[in-house]
Amino acid sequence: MAMALAHALELPGKLRLGRQEYFVVQRIYYPGFTIGGGIAEVGGIVATFVLMLTSIGPVRFWLIAGALAALLIMQLVFWLMTQPINKHWLQEVELTSPAKRFFATEGSDGAPLPPTEEWTALRNQWELSHVLRAALAMLSMILLTTAIAIQGA
Question: What predicted TM-score, i.e. pTM, was given to this entire model?
Answer without folding.
Answer: 0.82
